[in-house]
Amino acid sequence: MLHNRHKATIYDVAARAGVAISTVSRVLNNSSDVSEATRAKVNAAIAALQFRPDRTAKNLAQKGVQAISVALPSFTTPFHNEFLKGVRAALRGSGVDLLLSDLGSTDPHATLLRFLERGAVDGLVLVGMPVDDTLADELRALRAPVVLVGYPHEGVDAFVWDDEGGAYAATRHLIEQGRRRIGMIRAHSESEFLSARIRGYRRALDEAGIAFDATRIHRGETTKHAGFSEEAGGEALSALLAAHPDTDAVFATADVLAIGAMAAAREAGRRIPEDLALVGYDDVKVSRYMGLSSVDQHILDIGNTATLRLLDRVRGTVTGPAETVYIQPNLVVRASSGG
Fold first, then answer.
1. The CATH number of the domain where 270 resides is what?
2. I need a surface site. Which of 128, 201, 258, 297 has the fewest CB within 10 A?
3. 4: Cβ–Cβ under 8 A, 6 or more apart, which residues?
4. Phi, psi (deg, nearest 5) at residue 6
């Protein structure tokens, strides 16, 4: 696991800066009893060594976990809201504080790095962000357990969905309903999970002998929430129908897009599912009340399970090698696809 690899200690910082350990401690605690020249030397050593205060050791002395953090691209999308409900359920009655880091969609990598530089959490659940070498170094410097959701990385506990399989199941269902001119609407941002869902969509078409046509894949112009919005879904469907009026089914790569598409279909005089069958992805709570067929990713359960795994790592009740758990989504058929 990342947090078990050797990283700089307070002793290394003191040696590099040429000061006593107590001086480093005073700098870390923002004490005024340190000259500016000495503070600059210590901070330079901290930066050079990528030193982070060892919160785990502190909490062992305090006999308890104090706070964990969940970092995710948004707090407000239905997907992430559902995930946080699972986190909350896992923490209920634990006495553990939850710190949320909203990474946003403009530069989530930089936002996360700034957050990690504070070194002030006992554990981190990181949602929807691939880990490159730079980020891996920062996670190691955090010196605390990490659980990834959405993307795997060697040596880190992770929960990863089979996005290709989920998209394949959704598209195959539409084909089994007799639909042959199947479009796809997607979010604005590029990602590995989006690429996987396009692969699943294409594989189902290929198996059915339906020619893949990239011009049947559309996205909206609205970029808020990286394009995961009702507005973007409506825009994407309108663009799809303008380019291909014969479209008789649509696979949406997120429920929020599908909900916007439903409104746009009504405005275009298309009946669902008679004229246009529709399947979404995520199976958020509102979809169940709208009769939207959707690929269930078990989001709430994963939020709960990932948080419990993190707590086990922080408390030391789980000490074995990191594990990657692959989740198989399942299609839930409702009225929107005529099933």
1. 3.40.50.2300
2. 128
3. none
4. -65, 130
